[in-house]
Amino acid sequence: MELTRAATAHDAATAPPPAGPLPLTDHLERIFAARLHGLPASTTRALLLLAAMDGADAVIAVPAGLPRAEDEAWLPAEQAGLVRRTGRDVRFRHPLVRSAVYHAASLDAQREAHLALAEMLRDEPDRRAWHLAAACPGPDAAVSAELARTAARARRRGGHAAAAKALQRAAELAPQRADGARLLVEAAAAAVFTGDIAWVEELAAAARARTDDVTLLASAAVQAGRLAVLTGRHGVVFSRLADAAEELAVSQPAAALDLLAGAAVVRFYSGDDTQRRRIQDILRRLPEDAASAGLRTWVRAVSDPFDDRPRLVRLLPRLAAEAAARPEQLTTAGIMAWLLDETPQAVRAFDEAFHRWELQGPLPEGLGGAVAWAHVERGRWGQAREACARTIAVGRAAGLDHAVACAVTVDATVLAFQGDTATARAQAEDALTLVDPLESRSVHVYARRALGAAAAAEGAYESAYDQLRMAFTADGAPVHYHASYPALAELAAAAVRCGRRSEAVAIVERSACAPADNASPRLRALISRARGLLADLEDAEPHFRAALADPALEYWPFERAQTLLDLAEWLRRRRRIAEARGPLTEALEVFRRLGARPWIERARAESRAAGLDVTDSTPDALAELSPQQQQIIRLAARGLTNREIGERLFLSPRTVGSHLYRSFPKLGITARSQLRDLIEGALTGAGHQE
Length: 690
Known about the structure:
Layout: H1 9-14, H2 26-33, H3 41-52, H4 55-64, H5 75-79, E1 83-86, E2 89-92, H6 95-104, H7 107-120, H8 125-134, H9 141-156, H10 160-173, H11 177-191, H12 197-210, H13 214-228, H14 234-248, H15 253-270, H16 273-285, H17 293-303, H18 309-322, H19 327-339, H20 343-356, H21 369-378, H22 381-398, H23 401-418, H24 421-434, H25 441-457, H26 461-469, H27 487-498, H28 501-513, H29 521-534, H30 541-548, H31 557-573, H32 577-594, H33 597-609, H34 627-637, H35 642-649, H36 653-667, H37 675-686
Antiparallel strand pairs: 1-2
Helix pairs in contact: 2-6, 3-6, 3-7, 7-8, 8-9, 9-10, 10-11, 11-12, 11-13, 12-13, 13-14, 13-15, 14-15, 14-16, 15-16, 15-17, 16-17, 17-18, 17-19, 18-19, 19-20, 19-21, 20-21, 21-22, 21-23, 22-23, 22-34, 23-24, 23-25, 24-25, 25-26, 25-27, 26-27, 27-28, 27-29, 28-29, 29-30, 30-31, 31-32, 31-33, ...
């Protein structure tokens, strides 16, 4: 599932011109139109051409046939106070003048102006197509086809909003209702990537009104459903998707499976177990074939990753190989890998998808937080925060509060691990205000984990336990079938420090029963660590050793370092000080690399108690910057200009420059040319690895 950015900067540059400016009120129109009386015909024609085009046209149209600024045709208009000439530039004195000029002209004159501009722009097919469309008095198959080709070009360069608008206008001009319906469905598919839910639903409804073709109707339902999963109305959306999937199960099984894929995402967000059962029931009714294998695996992995996990894991390499040339499918494969605790595979898939994506196009949509969580687990905290910052920017621009909440909770967790507890707490609490905890159990659990981590970082273990306890139900079951499990070890760590051991034991053992033999090595390690923390002193060592036994657990460096520290503390308390020094040294090295300040302090104190000579290390300069500043620095280090950086991050070039100006002193550099060496040095020092 893919959710893209709301409207790319490229879309803005190539956005279709409207059919002239918006009309004025009668009063304003009469005031400005009065100035048009008595102007020469050449001036009136030049003014109408200028009014009918937009800024993107002007660069090409002026050399192609529009009168130049020095042309005498503009003098009467300038004297009438309608335009201003500055060098080679001619502009209306006010946008309302443009509107008055355009709407004072007859419809025939307006059409002639657009046709003239289309001729001037004959070497610019996209601009030409829009002017031809503006000149159409009614349906026109040829112009409709031109707009469809414009949409295809826009989509290839990542301009999804421009593509959707072109297809919507192409549908309006299509002489055949069936063609119009097909184009509207295509428009809805492109509009999904703008994040504009109302627009997608409008396009899907318009398609339904034009056809009774079951295939098109099914496709329209799928497009509307893909974006609806991103809202916080999980109960309503799930019912809509599941009902549609059931209705299409026999006649359109492929569309039904698509709808079920969206329903599985909703099930993940909501954590509602009744939804899992309904998904499984519908899935059993759908025929199995090779073409649907990937989507069926997605539905199963997202809705219940512990159901036959070994088989799902075996399918991942083949699915990733099949998706090698499709970034959006690579992202899907990465999300499945993350859900199955195959984090190394997930990170590789996300990295490959990112590198293949032109113009840094669509951001991961359904379960987009998986990208950030995978980076957190892999120890790539800076990249995790960058992913969060992108998702937050896109989500806010599109009005998708739930997407924002998902990203904010990941960012808050990293901040808590790094010791910025005040910001972490504020972010997690903000996330909780954006969702209904009964509608979105996943965000609720992630926020509680972040709040628990912040409290633990401050040594407030009673508060940490209370927060982490909310990741589990009153009777000790996980609130969320996936998000709650990583909280088990942290819950145990807080419990032993605030006298809640017996309650925590019951929760850990109940949670351990659910995945049973389908538990991942990572989850088994977390459960073993929790058992070691909660065990009687003489019984703890085997559990800690079990949590560290699998070499693959190095792929989760922070979790492994926590366990190493737990083991070292246990060994020192048992007066096995020499044995404690190795785990302590390794744990401290990881905490320093990650910038986990509270854990660094704890490991340093334990190291000194074990007789180790602990020296301070130089902090990572990038850690002193905000996530947005880190993004800007990394992009600038890759050679991007301020304008290019701004287009990617939805910032003005001036804002980008301001961030760079403020960041350089913190980084100890004075020139942009020093950024590449600084970033490469930071990456080398941090030991980033695959």
